[in-house]
Amino acid sequence: MVTLDFHPTGRHFLQIPGPSPVPDRILRAMSMPTIDHRGPEFGALGLRVLKGIQQIFQTKHPVVIYPASGTGAWEAALANTMSPGDHVLMYETGHFATLWQKMATRLGLKPEFLGLPGVEGWRKGVQAHLIEERLKADKEHSIKAVCVVHNETSTGATSNILAVRKAIDAARHPALLLVDSISGLASAEYKHDEWGVDVTVSGSQKGLMLPPGISFNALSPKALEASKSAKLPKAFWAWDEIVEMNKTGYWPYTPNTNLLYGLAEACDMLLDPHFGGLQGVFARHRRWAEGVRTGVKAWGLEVQCNEVASQSPVLTGVIMPEGVDADAVRKLIYERFDLSLGTGLGKVKGRMFRIGHLGDCNDLTLMAALSGCEMGLKLSGVRLSGSGVAAAMEFFAGHPAPLALQKAA
């Protein structure tokens, strides 16, 4: 048997920005026996999770659930709406925007990559005015879709999706709006219908607090209509059969039954009115993010996203001083303090590390993570301006959570 639980004592601190820790409550739900995916019990489960995930996306339209990673849902979004050779406008905010652009090329599309030059473009959210300017110049409406990342996991920048929608509308352009909210959903405010998104892509392993393995396409009527004439090859990813069978709670192939048990439990947790429902979830993440960044500021280190309004409630990227290898710091922290941090990716590899503050965590989880970071930074010879741990303690103590824990019996 493969040995996976190799941490000698206590819990490993998984503070990467996804996969995020899975709550015991969800693990217990997933341990239920697998049932017949054509039987009546499964149909009831299917309808329950489909209703719950619509509430999470804040949509009244279909949400397609795939037994796949977020990358699969990227492909599904493009394959169902585009035809070979279609021109798509994609905005570069970081590594994951870059990977989506690479996929579009491999699928036979013609992506145009828009964004600010160099590493500077990886320090901000989407600049919607650049999209508006480009679409206004597209007099023949050759651009069929605009693709943006809501929460760029590689940099910690959250983009204003409503501003992108307004930019498309201001240009009077018919392009579809496709959004990756793989790391944003259920952590950062997201309104699929109200923001006029045509396809939202997401995954299970971030704010939904599940293991990797299921992903989503939230659809608009415009996207469903576009899928009727889209010519890119698709079979497994095709929306039509899935949407039709989902009406009775079933799938046209074998779904991931036990992860759907977990998804049902996650929806119950996230929508629980006692803890403020989705708005309570978003408020918790904003507060955690502010506490962590208070600590980083006290260290005298830079945050990767330097546009304050775009700084993510999901994660914080911490830039190392010139000459310090961020991966070496991460390695030391992992080996000494059993704490996993996110690595820098693409253009910022070796220059920064990422602290996840999403999903199943609390103030003390983050205090432990910051303590591990501070000890590791000092051991690595990084000169700090002050104690980020003390600053974060002061923040969390002075800014109590808006919703208290349930009282004991």
Automatic annotation (TrEMBL):
It holds the Pfam family Aminotran_5. One of its GO terms (biological process) is glycine biosynthetic process, by transamination of glyoxylate. SUPFAM superfamilies: PLP-dependent transferases. The modification N6-(pyridoxal phosphate)lysine is found at K206. GO terms for molecular function: alanine-glyoxylate transaminase activity; L-serine-pyruvate transaminase activity. Its cofactor is pyridoxal 5'-phosphate. Substrate binds at R354. Residues 51-299 form the Aminotransferase class V domain. InterPro entries: Aminotrans_V_dom, PyrdxlP-dep_Trfase, PyrdxlP-dep_Trfase_major, PyrdxlP-dep_Trfase_small, SP_NH2Trfase/AEP_transaminase. Keywords: Aminotransferase, Pyridoxal phosphate, Transferase. Belongs to the class-V pyridoxal-phosphate-dependent aminotransferase family. PANTHER family: ALANINE--GLYOXYLATE AMINOTRANSFERASE, AMINOTRANSFERASE CLASS V. This is Aminotransferase class V-fold PLP-dependent enzyme. It comes from Ramlibacter montanisoli. The lineage of its organism: Bacteria, Pseudomonadati, Pseudomonadota, Betaproteobacteria, Burkholderiales.
